[in-house]
Write a structure and sequence with these properties.
single chain, 378 residues, alpha+beta, Aminopeptidase, four-stranded antiparallel sheet, 30% helix
Length: 378
């Protein structure tokens, strides 16, 4: 049985804490093979038949899949950033790589998936392999899904996050004739041209940007890397500047590339030229999204969790699904605390109580959404 034929198999006993411990103990910063095997085996042992799609995403569904009933999707990711940090538990706190990003959310979503009977509806668990890098798993998966709501697992401190800024990176290449330092005019020097570009970038959002968003605030354009030249007595033909873009609606990565190219062309002096190119144009970038705070999915999860409804601080795969249906980001753990970074840091941790609280909240919210639809149909 494949996930295309949702199963109604009755799950066997499952314990959240041992699964979470095994997940954190399993390195997945270089390859997700062992972590994917752990998830597939866990599902298989409980009567399900997950499939792995061409991009490496684990997908499994349950329920009757009545087209008139809701289809809800639970999504998070298998991969973690380097380096691996060993599992350690002290009282109610688990430390280790992935403890909160995102093996904590995975354990919570898997628990809810195994507990909830969607009845005539359909519940899908989809866990991607590369959220921390190319995000091609979500980019490949999203067009294949049609759902009524998505819960994306990330560390939100049990808050219900309904928006996130988009993220992309681009190179800006300033080109000129180059030549001996003694013979190249200043207005033909790409290094001086970069100065003009930097000044233009500082004014970009004030002049042509999309403006602020009520949930997400201002977009942000940040120069990050500068590269050019090999000899101290020679003017280079090209100088390349890398920028990081954090966008708000309605800007997309493609519209940003086009807008920035046109804008910079009007700010570069002859005989120099400028070219803007997205980095990794063959893989997707997460665009900004905002979900209606009054969507039933948002209300159900906020009531179940008691968390604040707010924007998420980082870019996330949620943007790929938000174009299809209301999407929220939710999970145990935090990105940062009063001491600094938690996720991606060597001190990464999560409270075990929050793992259970997240699982309970998702289970309750899903139950409410499936039950509400059933009552409406009756």
């Amino acid at each position: 049985m494949s996930s295309e034929e949702p199963t109604t198999a009755r799950p066997e006993a499952f314990e959240l804490e041992p699964f979470h411990a095994a997940a954190v103990e399993t390195p997945s910063h270089e390859t997700v093979e062992a972590m994917r095997t752990l998830l597939v085996d866990t599902l298989t042992d409980r009567g399900f038949s997950p499939r792995v799609d061409d991009a490496g995403t684990v997908v499994v569904s349950r329920g009757a899949a009545d087209p008139a009933s809701p289809h809800l999707v639970l999504n998070t990711h298998l991969d973690t950033v380097a380096p691996h940090v060993p599992y350690e538990r002290e009282g109610d706190v688990v430390r280790g790589r992935g403890a909160c990003d995102a093996k904590g959310p995975l354990a919570a979503l898997l628990t809810a998936f195994l507990r909830v009977d969607p009845g005539d509806g359909k519940l899908t668990l989809a866990v991607t392999p590369d959220e921390e890098t190319t995000q091609s798993g979500a980019g490949t998966l999203a067009p294949t899904l049609s759902a009524d709501g998505y819960i994306v697992g990330e560390p939100t401190g049990l808050d219900v996050c309904i928006a996130a800024r988009g993220q992309c990176e681009a190179t800006i290449t300033v080109s000129g004739p180059g030549g001996h330092a003694a013979g190249v005019a200043d207005d033909a020097n790409p290094v001086y041209g970069v100065g003009d570009v930097l000044a233009a970038l500082a004014a970009y959002d004030d002049r042509v940007g999309t403006g602020s968003d009520a949930r997400l605030g201002e977009p942000k354009l940040t120069p990050t890397v500068l590269h050019g030249g090999k000899a101290t007595n020679r003017v280079p033909e090209t100088v390349t500047l890398t920028v990081d873009r954090r966008s708000v609606p309605p800007e997309t990565s493609d519209s940003f590339e086009e807008s920035l190219q046109e804008y910079l062309e009007s700010h570069i002096r002859d005989p120099l030229s400028v070219a803007v190119e997205l980095i990794r144009p063959d893989t997707p970038f997460p665009d900004a999204f905002v979900t209606d705070a009054d969507a039933p999915l948002v209300r159900a999860l906020q009531t179940a969790s008691g968390g604040e409804v707010r924007a998420f601080e980082a870019a996330t795969e949620a943007s790929y699904f938000a174009a299809d249906a209301p999407t929220v980001v939710f999970g145990p753990g935090v990105l940062t605390d009063d001491e600094g970074a938690v996720a991606h840091a060597t001190r990464e941790y999560v409270a075990v109580a929050d793992l259970h609280a997240a699982a309970d909240a998702v289970e309750t919210a899903l139950g409410t959404l499936f039950e509400t639809n059933s009552e409406t149909d009756s």
